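User: Sequence in, structure out. Go.
Assistant: Echoing your sequence, followed by the structure tokens.
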Amino acid sequence: MDGDLKGEDVGDLLKGESGSEIPIRIERPYGGGVLDLMVERAKVRIPAVTYSGMLDDTTGYIYLSKFTRGSAGEVRKALMSMRDSSGMTQLVFDLRGNGGGLLKESVSIVNLFVPKGTEIVSTRGKSDQWNKSYKALGRPTAEKMPLVVLIDGQSASASEIVSGTLQDLDRAVILGMESFGKGLVQQTKDMAFNTRLKVTVAKYYTASGRCIQRLDYGGKRDAQGKATAVSDTLLRMFQTTGGRPVVEGRGIQPDIEVEVPFMSTLLERLLGEYAVFNYATEVAASLDSTDVPDPVSYRMSDAHWSGFLSHLESAGFEYSTESMKALEELRQVVVLEQYQGVASEAIESLDGALAPNLTRDLALFEDEIRQTLEEEVVLRFHYASGMVERSLKRDPTVNRALTVFGDEMTSVIGWGEQADSEAVPSRE
């Protein structure tokens, strides 16, 4: 087939009846030759728990990427494994970037940490059939284990049900950044010409009774016709079990806020143009498994780092910055206000200082770019779980979470210092 194919196009070509076979030819870059394979098609289930492991001697970590069928069972299995075999007594549960999924799975996951019979979430709609309450129906797996839940701006829907209810019940410290704010129950209706209509039938309400929906689709619209958030003055306050105030209509606001580290414009462009991906592939082709024995210890050699500049130059990599964009806007305003006579020298000086300089900027942002390249190389040898394991070591949100257990957890949600995982939470 002529022309470049997008990822989804390749996926469509590979799909077929389970059990059937398809020949695939893989051209490996950087002298790797060509592989001819006969692959048998099969149903593939991607685990929802992308990674689980110990952060230190007592703290476990679980990253849940989505709420699909069976995800609660995966979380429970990881919990029990780390508790029984690794001595885990406290947990960091990561929901960052998790856009949600099945309501049933979110209820079951909360049930792992709260007693049977606890109301977890409710839905309310214009029709009585959508007025439902969902409670914990089983025995919890880790009812009294200290818990920190991580969220960010991409944590939505089912992620907000889990984090919001655990916050409402004073069962966990929520840490990170304010979540997305999707609290709608929606159904799809088949329409003509193979299209579908998405219809909102109800809203979600966490255990305290608050709705997490941010945008008011039935209210005023902005100049572009888009829905806007409800005014702060109209929002209602609710209380957690321990009497702490929580607000509706703003997603889930963390108990402890941790800002996402700044990403340089250069790294953003390198990722967007697949320059990091391509060079990591080139580097990995020159290594073997003995060079990257585990995800954490690998360090890119100075020779490979120095070669990145040559790789970018030979590939014709170019980039612009937000600073140059702002400078161009300033230049236009200066001309408009007729200040070019007194400001031209200063603007030309800024132009020289801010103009993209690949050699200078690679040195300026070496730490973050080099670390990102190293993670990509690790990905080639230890796959996604290995890259997650490596990234945790320099993750400021995870590192902040490790400091919360103990006195700070007591001050935030009323849990006393835990002697072990069976300690009883304080409600004082």
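User: And one key feature?
Assistant: DSSP finds 13 helices and 16 strands in the chain.
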